[in-house]
């Protein structure tokens, strides 16, 4: 009986680790902490998608996100973009110099603001899909992350953990 209780306890502990790892997918490299990379599902025929995440610099010196690349089976290329209102019109533009990640000032890549563009989609992004991308930082170097695709028009389900 004691052996059965120990086996069940070990199984429950193992399951709790695997579930929490699946739900919370954050990444840390040096002083940078990257929280929950996610994307929205896209309709069939869409040629672009977007990626969102939060990058927090817990160090004393600024870093810079300088580029992003995505799995070749997902899109032809990826860029760092910004949406902003100029003269009363919402405009989107690439940020070829990247984005500064200042200490203590999280950079929020979210709908309607900073975001990553996945251009030349090879297939629709569907809810529940996961795909890999690499974020390149000026000082911290490359960080491989995995994006989770949320519902079309949806908000991330795992932020703030």
Structure description:
The chain has one helix at about 1-25; strands at about 25-30, 30-40, 50-55, 65-70, 75-85, 90-95, 100, 105-110, 115-120, 130-135, 140-150. It is built from 1 helix and 11 strands, in the order H-E-E-E-E-E-E-E-E-E-E-E. Strand 2 and strand 3 (about 50-55) form a beta hairpin. Helix content is about 15%, strand content about 50%. The longest helix has 22 residues, at about 1-25. The chain is mainly beta. The protein has one domain (about 25-150): Sandwich (Immunoglobulin-like). It starts with a helix and ends in an 11-residue tail after the last strand.
CATH superfamily: PCu(A)C copper chaperone
Mean pLDDT: 85
Measured by DSSP, the beta-strand proportion falls in over 45%
CATH class label: Mainly Beta
Unreliable stretches covering 5 or more consecutive residues: 1-22
Main sheet: strands, sense, barrel? 11 strands, mixed
Examine the coordinates and then state which fold CATH places here, giving the name of the CATH topology: Immunoglobulin-like
Structural class: mainly beta
Alpha plus pi helix count: 1
Number of strands: 11
- Spatial extent as radius of gyration: 18 Å
Order of helix and strand elements from N to C terminus: HEEEEEEEEEEE
Which CATH architecture is right? Sandwich
Note the gap between the termini: 37 Å
Shape category:
globular
The tally of structural domains comes to 1
Helix percent reads 10-25%
